[in-house]
Amino acid sequence: MPAPQPPVTPDRPTVRDGLPAAPESPDGTTARAKGRPRSAAADRAILDATREALAELGWGGLTMGHVATRAKVAKTTLYRRWPSKNELVVDAVASLFDELVMPDLGSLRADIEAVVSQFAALLARPETQAALLALFAEGTRDPQLRRRIREAIVDPQKRLVRQGRAAAQVRGELAPDCDETAACEEVDIIFDTIAGTVEHRVLVSGEPITAEWTRRFTDLLLGPFPSLVP
Amino acid sequence: MPAPQPPVTPDRPTVRDGLPAAPESPDGTTARAKGRPRSAAADRAILDATREALAELGWGGLTMGHVATRAKVAKTTLYRRWPSKNELVVDAVASLFDELVMPDLGSLRADIEAVVSQFAALLARPETQAALLALFAEGTRDPQLRRRIREAIVDPQKRLVRQGRAAAQVRGELAPDCDETAACEEVDIIFDTIAGTVEHRVLVSGEPITAEWTRRFTDLLLGPFPSLVP
Amino acid sequence: MPAPQPPVTPDRPTVRDGLPAAPESPDGTTARAKGRPRSAAADRAILDATREALAELGWGGLTMGHVATRAKVAKTTLYRRWPSKNELVVDAVASLFDELVMPDLGSLRADIEAVVSQFAALLARPETQAALLALFAEGTRDPQLRRRIREAIVDPQKRLVRQGRAAAQVRGELAPDCDETAACEEVDIIFDTIAGTVEHRVLVSGEPITAEWTRRFTDLLLGPFPSLVP
Amino acid sequence: MPAPQPPVTPDRPTVRDGLPAAPESPDGTTARAKGRPRSAAADRAILDATREALAELGWGGLTMGHVATRAKVAKTTLYRRWPSKNELVVDAVASLFDELVMPDLGSLRADIEAVVSQFAALLARPETQAALLALFAEGTRDPQLRRRIREAIVDPQKRLVRQGRAAAQVRGELAPDCDETAACEEVDIIFDTIAGTVEHRVLVSGEPITAEWTRRFTDLLLGPFPSLVP
DNA sequence: TAATAATCGAGACGGTACGTCTTGTCTTTGA
DNA sequence: TCAAAGACAAGACGTACCGTCTCGATTATTA
Fold this sequence. Notes:
Chain A is mainly alpha-helical. Chain A folds into 2 domains: 40-81, Homeodomain-like (Arc Repressor Mutant, subunit A, Orthogonal Bundle); 95-228, Tetracycline Repressor, domain 2 (Orthogonal Bundle), CATH 1.10.357. The first copy, chain A, is 63% helix and 0% strand. The first copy, chain A, is elongated and about 60 Å long. The interface between C and D is large, with 49 and 49 residues.
């Protein structure tokens, strides 16, 4: 969700600054906003500058003024789009998480290990490392921010778990869902477990995710299905 | 680990500010430091003020100046003891984690569920919530701080996993350890899983830890030992 | 001098924005400009808004953006006519000074007192008070602005002194001018004295111009002509 | 009135920032303020920087941040002493006016001409020119500032008129005062006339104060006493 | 009637200064 | 020697205006 801004990339309207982005006229066509349209180049420059600055300076060193300077943009231009550092970083980081994919390698175990590896690699990037926990920390105090983080960063990744389950069911490794609600809860619990554990290992303990560790962790996840554990 | 300060509670020297706290004379008696001794009341007031301010204002709203004012202490006195907000909060929060205990309720499942509940309750407290992820976030940029966090907050809780395993082995629920190293790694992986998952559920997803959720999560943890899953 | 703008009131061309306002064709008739003509209503709305804003907010509170908003006009429209706040306020205030008149009441003393009263009343108006000294202050740094202030606001009022002298000469109160240059200098000195003194009394000392004060001040001005002092 | 600040030059307490500057203990001795005393060097550097910046950049170009930078002082240090540009400039300019003196040259005419010349020279200095009218303009909107300007800059100069009158009375050029109140009002009117007229001539008309002009203006002032006009 | 051209509104743009806040250090007096 | 009080330099904060620009829409004259 790379923070598109209305008149420039009107494909997917966001509520980035709380205002309707692309007002529609009654006939359904996208109404042209009045006044000078916002610069798409500025949007891109700002998000790029944010990611660079995160990687170089970390969360604490990231300053709105610094981002503006680095993006060669006025501070007003920055604040017009994102009301604070938090929202800016959410958008800047969200796109990184869209790179994660469910590969479908032919076995549930292989798929899990691949996703864990991808996630570990993502968490090893300095911009992710600098931003993720700090955002989560801010989210604990600001429910609206937490919702934004979940919508833009966290929840979209649950698709990986759902896709993996579906593929395993097609392959016959897992039984088909009988109860929709229970399936949903199981997706949640699996997702929280994978995400939380890998984050804790990498970001808190500060230890690497090796192939061996991934194998053992996958053993744990597959525990309820002994037939899948070698 | 309530951040004792040397001349006052000389039972366990800390490295709080990098200096040996209670120098010992050659004859083994604790040497009296020169000059006016530091006030023990100030230490307590500072840590209490820190916890209160964390609960009220969150991590971002917590400032050294504010803590000093609230503790009715000069800023100099504060900085003389803790070099920065990070270290101060580590000490202020660490003691809260010492409240966690392994109850030994007669079954591994019951023990796990009890510990998860305790941890969830701890994470529900505003001061913990405000501080924990913020500290972890700071730790990703400052290896020394990360070490301090692990030593004071995270690693001590691994005892819970070890105690739980030992009790289960005594009860015959788990086989005795054969390989010491493997056992250690298993403790680590279990710990990261419990800690990370519960943190993610509470602090990121912002959803409560219910008895039902705890049961399902324990099912997952006990997956490799089907005999323990009802 | 109510800031006429060329195509609308082409009677007296101004140099308001440095460009020839109403280009003349070779045959002497005023050539009609191409394109959409400037709105006369906008001019009036802007000057009215400027005077109102001056009275309400003072010089410092007056901003171009604010004037544009209050006049329901785009900022571009404002800047197209007046290059800066200074020029705008000169035109907005100048017309107020045109209200001053030399009454010819039958004696020099009465005429002087009448003019002083009128001037004091003008200086008591909030828009004048807010603008006059601020314009003079700006003028000390910008010779072109000072010239514009003199041409539009200050010098035109010297007619009052000249008219009063002429009337007194007709009445025989004053001797006729012998030296043209000396007469001019005397007009200047009298004008600077009246204008400066009243301004200082009202705007700096902040004390009112009473009838008693006016009488005493007129005594001073008439000092060189004892026969006129009662 | 060079803006002394309490613990440094405790001779004359000011109300510069509204707080009692040098609190006195009951026994009349000046109580020592707690904490680190304010730097006298900073005061001097700030006022010097203000005067320099006024001369170079004018009132509009004078910035609190600029003054702080030029004085090699933090902005907080500046704001701790003077709440705004207005108050700062009052203090920076006030001292310049203390240089004016009544010379007592043996005749009222000579004394008046000498004071007018001094005042004209003062108004010709760029820092005075930049500041004076701007301060007066601000004063029209802020009664407290106007009072401050009068107390620090304007009213102290009335001593010149009083001294001149007294000397002339000693010399027998003027009759002794009979009515105290009337004398006071006459001082006021004379002062407003001299100050206002010279200011208007120099700052508004922008024309120089020549010896010839001074002679003619003095003629006007001495009008009521024909015996003193040559 | 159509083309042309300057106007209009709206609002985004890069800049600059604002006055406040926090940080971590320093400099006093007093205990 | 420490405690308290508060001054100090440094620098980020988010806001307000500045004067310019880029739009689409409007309103005149000219062809």
